[in-house]
Design brief:
The structure is a single chain. The protein is of the alpha+beta class. It folds into two domains: about 20-135, Immunoglobulins (Immunoglobulin-like), CATH 2.60.40.10; about 140-300. The protein has eight helices and nine strands. It has helices spanning about 1-20, 140-170, 175-195, 205-215, 220-230, 235-260, 270-300, 305-320; strands at about 30, 35-40, 55-60, 65-70, 75-80, 90, 100-105, 110-120, 125-135. β8 (about 110-120) and β9 (about 125-135) form a beta hairpin.
């Protein structure tokens, strides 16, 4: 008699085991700054029917369902919450092999505990996977610091150049106002760009911030020409060379920007930093050049009024 009882217990145990779906033991998954989407794994290891039409999948976040797949429906149906419009099974053709993993966009992938419920005919199983977000800077910390520092220095050098030229040389009020307004545009754009770039992650705001740092720097090229033109009646060849080098630095910086703005991690961040560094170097050389050579040039040249007054007197005499 006891033998029969043991037999029935074993059969019951086997029957209960066969009704339970088993999963690969994956307890958590990470999504980082560079992921455009995330796959939350749900891998069944002991399917028997291997028939998508006999399967039912339900995904929950924190106990609330947001995605349902009904294989028995004709045609097969999926239902999703409006908050998770990007939700979809990783690969529907592989569902019959037990791959019930879910794909979500990075924007909709909320950190938390995701529960995957799978049913195959009268067999079912549940697994919970925690989604964790890692918060990292888009650029390497050193690259971030160098980008910000080079642009800050570029604006500081410009205002220093403007201060020297405005105080030592005779330039019109209108030109001063124009130079100040242009400098403010570059400075404000750089400040806003740095604020948007600093926060961690790879978001649209970070890309806009980088653009505000690099792209407005083009204004510094014609500004340097105007400043040099205010010092020299005809800018010497060395001054022209400085202008060309500054333009080259901007081209290099924009090239690095174009190759990095949509890439994660950025592909050519050092190129962008190198371009901005060239802009800074030219600004320093131009500042020293204006202070030393410009002062000597000014000393050698008679004031424009002193030249113009005799000419005007001569014209008056001739007219008489």
């Amino acid at each position: 008699m006891w033998v029969l009882r043991v037999w029935w217990v074993l059969l019951g145990t086997l029957g209960a085991g066969s009704a339970q779906l088993l999963f690969e033991n994956i307890t958590s998954v990470l999504i980082n700054k560079c992921n455009s989407s995330v796959i939350i794994p749900c891998l069944v290891t002991n399917l028997q029917k291997n028939d998508t039409r006999r399967m039912f999948i339900k995904w929950k976040l924190g106990g609330s369902g947001f995605f349902v797949f009904e294989g028995h429906a004709r045609p097969m149906k999926t239902h999703k919450n409006s908050t998770f419009q990007s939700a979809e099974l990783e690969c529907l053709p592989k569902l019959s092999s037990g791959i019930a993993s879910l794909r979500l966009s990075r924007e909709e992938a909320i950190p938390g505990n995701y529960t995957c419920e799978v049913a195959e005919s009268n067999r079912e199983g549940v697994i919970t996977v925690e989604l964790k977000k890692t918060v990292e800077s888009w650029f390497e910390p050193v690259e971030n610091v160098l980008i910000i520092i080079t642009m800050v220095l570029a604006t500081i050098f410009y205002w220093t150049q403007l201060g020297v030229v405005a105080t030592k040389y005779d330039i019109s009020l209108l030109k001063k106002i124009s130079l100040i307004i242009a400098g403010l545009i570059v400075t404000v754009a750089a400040v806003i760009g740095c604020i948007l770039l600093v926060p961690d992650g790879f978001a649209t705001s970070n890309q806009i911030g980088l653009g505000l740092i690099v792209l407005p720097a083009i204004i510094l090229v014609p500004l340097l020409y105007i400043l040099l033109d205010s010092v020299f009646e005809k800018p010497p060849c060395f001054a022209v060379t400085l202008l060309l080098l500054k333009a080259l630095g901007y081209v290099i910086a924009v090239t690095g920007f174009a190759m990095s703005v949509s890439a994660c991690p950025p592909l050519q961040a050092p190129v962008m930093v190198a371009g901005l560094a060239i802009i800074d170097l030219v600004a320093v050389i131009a500042l020293v050049y204006v202070i030393i050579i410009g002062s000597n040039f000014k000393d050698r040249q008679p004031p424009r009024k002193a030249v113009e007054e005799p000419l005007n007197d001569a014209k008056g005499v001739m007219l008489e």
